[in-house]
């Protein structure tokens, strides 16, 4: 086997120490790697690179397509960007994979048989980062969910299940409230699930699903979620399994993939030979599987399990009675290296296939017939009651675009609003064509002109469209 090119970054804080330990264990496990090193993080921020990485470092990732990354420290304030978000978005790393496994009785946990894999959509949702202040009192963040994004992450979850001999895939959403965004995620998940009759599938509302996962994680196998829920619940899952410090993470993309620990750079522990390198090591195991070096991944992971089983632990998981020896970062790596070739006796050993590759497709769909039915006009208005605002709006409505309702923070306040409803200075004014009638962009623009001339200048608009005759918008609360 010729060595596989990878890019390595030692990061900040404890990063250099845990990366050194990880690279030593990779070599001892027989990994065949051709390593390019790059600098990221604090040193690059200090040189004026706002995302903590230089363009030539990005070129290294384009060459190798594999990134083993230690944690970094992002400076507070000053317009600095998250390196992880930059890398994920630049290279389209759409799937974040976090195995969350308990190692009872060797690492303390309330869930001794937990073995859950979190598959998190990694690019969309509220993490698009599109935010605006629209009035004195109201800011917004746009939640963007796409059909291709939903299909890609759902299909990856099912393909991962097949590749790793898993039995069930569960989706978590909040589509009882967010019927269109989370509703699309649920709908596409069900469509994809139908193509995998060999695997169980189910859906949970995210709040009760999260409660069930925290209480009875053994009820789940693979959980696939939109970005925000996945970010939160993957950390919860890692912690209840035993420790966030033991969890590795893969960020899978069509062009470049990144492997890392899920924890931060812990600068207060830097240079003390204390840090637990397990998260980065298990991220490196995921990397080896991804690049087709399953034999090395098997040796490395089983050696790590054997070390944990022998009670040789770093300070963060050391406990009197269950641990036998407290060791530092270097000594923990030494202990793993000594056990390369061994398999655990109590914990389940692992076995990875060589040459395993997961690829996904996105179904091409014919575009729908799109017609405009009206417009939601958002206005900044502070001068009175909903009825008074409606009185100002009604003269500018037309027979083809009548005023349908006014809402505030998503709650209908006109007509027939409740006087107890709290209102702010941010109003949504819906102009909707009568049933069976459509409108045009020019009519909508003319409406906005009339409102602006009347002192009701729109701060935001949303077109109301039908797709193949089905309305592409919700009514809102109170309707």
Could you explain the architecture of this structure?
There is one protein chain. The chain is of the alpha/beta class and about 475 residues long. The protein folds into two domains: about 5-340, Isopropylmalate Dehydrogenase, CATH 3.40.718.10; about 370-470, Alpha-Beta Plaits (2-Layer Sandwich). It has 13 helices and 20 strands. The strands form four sheets. Strands 2-1-3-12-11-4-5-10-8-9 form a ten-stranded mixed sheet, sandwiched between helices. Helix 1 packs across helix 9 (about 280-290), helix 5 (about 145-165) crosses helix 6 (about 180-195) and helix 9 (about 280-290) runs antiparallel to helix 10 (about 295-310). The longest helix is centred in the first third of the chain and has 17 residues, at about 145-165.
CATH C-level class of the largest domain is: Alpha Beta
Q: Measured on Cα atoms, how large is the radius of gyration? A: 26 Å
- Beta content comes to 15-25%
Q: How far apart lie the N and C ends?
A: 65 Å
Q: Look at the structure and give the mean pLDDT.
A: 94
Number of domains: 2
Secondary-structure content class: alpha/beta
Helix share bin: 25-40%
Tell me the number of helical segments per DSSP (H or I, 4 or more residues long): 13
